[in-house]
Design goal:
One of its GO terms (molecular function) is quinone reductase (NADPH) activity. Residues 10-319 form the Enoyl reductase (ER) domain. The chain is α/β, with parallel strands linked by helices. It folds into 2 domains: 2-122 and 265-320, Quinone Oxidoreductase, Chain A, domain 1 (Alpha-Beta Complex); 135-254, NAD(P)-binding Rossmann-like Domain (Rossmann fold). It is built from 10 helices and 15 strands. The strands form 3 sheets. Strands 3, 4, 5, 6, 7, 14 and 15 form a 7-stranded mixed β-sheet that branches. It is globular, with a radius of gyration of 20 Å.
Length: 324
């Protein structure tokens, strides 16, 4: 099989294409022939940082979609099933023609949903669903989403609007029209140097802020949150409470999607996969929209991921594998 492999911390363009022996699934696993590979910021971050559990030759990549071509003992999922997946960061991943996954961590792809779209969704869709699950229902309550123009933010805006929240989207103004059409009630330009002050001047006490920028940025937004409100961190976490004790009484939440592979019990993993399948069906039925995609050949993977890191992609790249 072909795989883009990591050798040491560096740039996406440092990945090396290698021809490797095709792995075989063990008990409880499936072998997937990838038809498409999704790219996410977490991919370039781990390529940049490295990890003690990554060795020379590790295959990065968390998102992919394809067809099950072999199963290990005890697997009920039929060969030929169309699936999408979010792979553990600590296993060989999706940047390959074939990937081995735990059978209980794949999602069936509905008829009518192409592999490229399916591969672009697992990480952002599951992340968005976990973020919203932190919030108790509160119809009409204002929720601020930062980095709302990205893949996670685009889905958050739609899911929050569907749940009845008043959605405020903070993102570059080039995304405002698209997000307004998807359910955002208010859009602000987070590139403006005074955007936080402008939000404060509106006098809106936010029920929740869902931040995808950084723990530092999330802490800066804490004063905008109402008493007994919620601060949800998708990037980083709040190691220290951002406000003094016994003031706004904020609830602090972290989203740690990768931890589901090693720290969630079987029922929680099954529930997350069921949520993912429902979201894939929503996209197939056009009840949800992802961000605009650009299909590229597998050989273009390092350059496409580098362009994501450098902020140079107008559309979200997805790698489509040549079949046959």
């Amino acid at each position: 099989m072909q795989a883009w492999t990591w050798t040491q911390p560096g740039q996406p363009t440092d990945l090396i294409l290698r021809h490797l022996e095709r792995p075989q699934p063990q008990a409880g696993e499936v072998l997937i022939e990838n038809h498409a590979v999704g790219l996410n910021p977490v991919d370039w971050k781990f390529i940049d940082w490295g990890h003690p559990r990554w060795q020379d030759g590790h295959i990065p990549g968390v998102d992919g979609a394809g067809v099950v071509i072999a199963t290990g003992a005890g697997v009920a999922l039929p060969v030929g099933s169309r699936v999408a997946y979010y792979q553990s960061l600590f296993r060989d991943g999706s940047f390959a023609s074939h990937s081995v996954l735990a059978a209980n961590m794949v999602m069936r792809v509905p008829d009518g949903l192409d592999f490229a779209t399916a591969a672009s969704l697992p990480c952002p869709a599951l992340t968005a669903s976990q973020a919203i699950a932190k919030l108790p229902p509160a119809a009409g309550a204002p929720v601020l989403v930062t980095r709302a123009g990205g893949a996670v933010g685009t889905l958050l805006v739609q899911l929050l609007a569907r749940a009845g929240f008043e959605v405020w989207a903070a993102t570059s103004d080039r995304h405002h029209h698209r997000l307004a059409s998807l359910g955002a009630h208010h859009c602000v330009d987070e590139r403006s140097p005074n955007w936080r002050a402008q939000l404060q001047q509106t006098g809106t006490p936010f029920y929740a802020v869902i931040d995808s920028a950084s723990g530092t940025e999330a802490a800066r937004l804490a004063p905008l949150i109402a008493y007994n409100g919620h601060l949800v961190c998708i990037q980083d976490r709040q190691e220290v409470p951002p406000l003094p004790a016994f003031t706004s009484a904020l609830s602090l939440h972290e989203v740690a999607l990768n931890s589901v592979h090693e720290h969630a019990h079987a029922a929680a993993r099954a529930a997350l996969m069921a949520t993912g399948e429902a979201l894939l069906e929503d996209v197939a039925q056009q009840r949800l929209q992802g961000v605009p995609l650009e299909a590229l050949p597998f050989d273009a993977l390092p350059e496409a991921l580098q362009a994501i890191k450098d902020g140079q992609m107008a559309a979200r790249p997805v790698l489509v594998m040549a079949q046959g």
